[in-house]
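Sequence in, structure out. First:
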Amino acid sequence: MATEEVAAKVAEEAAKEPQSVEVLNSFISDPVGYITAHQDAIISVCTNLIYAVIILVIGWMVAKLFGSIANKILTKAKVEKTIANFAGQLIKYAILAFVITAALGRLGIETASFIAIIGAASFAVGMALQGSLSNFAAGVLLLIFRPIKAGEYVNVAGQEGVVQEITIFTTTLLSVDNKLIVIPNSSVGSGTIINYSREEKRRVDFNFGVAYNADIETAKKTLRQMFEADARVIKEDGITTVVSALGESAVTIHCRVWVKSSDYWDVFFDGNEKALLALKKAEVEIPYRTVTVINKK
């Protein structure tokens, strides 16, 4: 009984053996006869192949067209160029994914199993590229919420400069001394972002030291008049001149003025120089460290 069962299983396995070798041998021995015998099947395969190629070509053209249209619409709507390009590319490749699936279905390939394979491969690639995916996710968030944009002066990830470009994976800054700084988006998104250009105006703070025997009111009045004479200072927001500290050898007068963000550094540097000249002209003593040497004999 056992021998009969074994024989039956062997016969069953033999029946299940792939017939690809037999088909190949039949085609090699008599190609014309094989083609004649299977011409309907061959015509069907060739037809499906032609349709699949047509689907791919037309699908590629449609995907490229829709991506370009989306890019142009967003650009005309004054959406940032980086976001417009990204949206156009996303639409293009999303359409291509459906086109490839349709072409494979036309060829008789099971798209469900194909999608499962792609999903498994994507998971493996994703595990290997966790850092890049983190940069990608951060880049998408930066493009959506736009805490920074091209042309703004910012401090991100401990670096300062003018934003040149925000891509899906990196953010590029140009420092004040003309160095190009490329920062991964994950570092930008996970840290503190300081945007110096987003607001139209900024406050400039100054600290000036005058001697204890100087006329404080004269010093304050001189500094106020100096800032009032500067056309870049926004007078409507007020000018503050107060005594902020009593140091070891000087009284500190703190001044605050509001200016346009683009004028910040010019006003800051000019203000320090003009304050020195104005206080000297008003004969307000500016203290400096001195060393007294006593020679005891």
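Second:
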Amino acid sequence: MKKTFTLPAIALACLLSACAVQPKTTTSAQTTTEAANYDPLDTPEAVAEMLRKAEAGDMEAQVSACAFGLTSSAHYHPADGGDSWCEKAADRGNIYAMVDMSSRYDMALERAPDPAKALYWIKRAATTTPDEKDIHAPEAYASLADAYEYGLMTLKPDARQAVKWYTKAAEAGNSNAYLPLARLHESGIGTRQDFKAAAKWYTKSAEFGLADGQCALARLYLKGQGVARDPAKAYYWDTVAALTNRKYERNDICTPGASWMVMQQFLTDEQRAKIDKEAAARVAQP
């Protein structure tokens, strides 16, 4: 399951080297991070000013202190790691901070593990109405969906709830939700079997660059499930999947391998060569 981590080590390095990295911030109790309005934290004075504002109740400053893992003494402390500022911001309804608190309890970051509290914070994050500038609510939806699918954080597995929250996350643009949502639609688990919906989300996953989604989309094109049968597109996505795995040094095998079947039965040498070139160009993109 995808987690949210604070970045205290990076923050500390910035403070020591005068880098210009700016923390994510919020603008209200129900908003999450956007570009910081503070000057770069490249001097002790800048840090002290941020913490002064945090102690005065400024939400942006509290989330910045949370993200930078700072204590009230203006220094990173391993036993705290911004924990108190994260909790203050989370209590006030900040989605970034609530997701962060869930991760802290779930993964025992600066505190004892507590699955019930991890669930409390991720549920609260997922059910808090975000404003238009929010970028962390979709992550909360996807994390809650994971918890329902796999029975995490004291929950019992509930595929219907998983589909509900994966759908909300995917529709909000969270790439971590594309593949599991497609698989649930393809298998008919937690929802009626729907190959068209599966193809839609496999396509999103494939275009995002996930080899598993590329492989699955190739299979659907080869079988004509949810999409018109198209051996050329099957071969294309199967080849892209293989090149993606090679690029990232993964050993995954696209199963069933669409490549061999379409090469032997449906495509000419010239067609395969053209598709190979197109697939290589796609994977070569940054």
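Remark: The longest helix spans residues 231-247.
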